[in-house]
Fold this sequence. Notes:
Strand content: 25-35%
Low-confidence stretches: none
CATH architecture: 3-Layer(aba) Sandwich
Helix content: 10-25%
Amino acid sequence: MSIANTICKVTLINATCHRYTFQSKKVLEYVQSHTIGRTLNLFAGKTIIKKGEYRVDTDTSMPLIDSHEGAENFLTYNTELFDTIIFDPPWNARKAREKYEGRFYGKYQRMKEDIVNTLKPGGRVISAGYKISYFGKKRGFTQENLLVVNPGGDINPFFVSVEVMNCR
């Protein structure tokens, strides 16, 4: 049996669920406290995480969107590097129906490679969903912080993960 040589700080909060993940004040404040430098917000939705962030969303009704081509298309042609990338895709088919008129974004594995290539060395990915880690050691990431959000009642908890890219 091996013991992990890295300790991840885990924070547990009680917060209500919202249609858009970062509409919860507690969750938003957590993400803001871990966002550094030039920030790319994929699947941006309604909530502005950081003034000056680059926002990508297919929904034309969302505020201050810089690219309406969608995350996958944006990552394909983007040549800019970012210090922080916020990755909050629809977590399941229900969320996809609610937020993206049924279009479920299921090509995350390929998108992850493009995200890695869009991140500056030492940069971080902040991701939200029902999984604890999206990027992991195989891609050169270390889990630094983890927020466990307990919405209460019959709703399952979800996670906000902060992973830092190890310098290559």
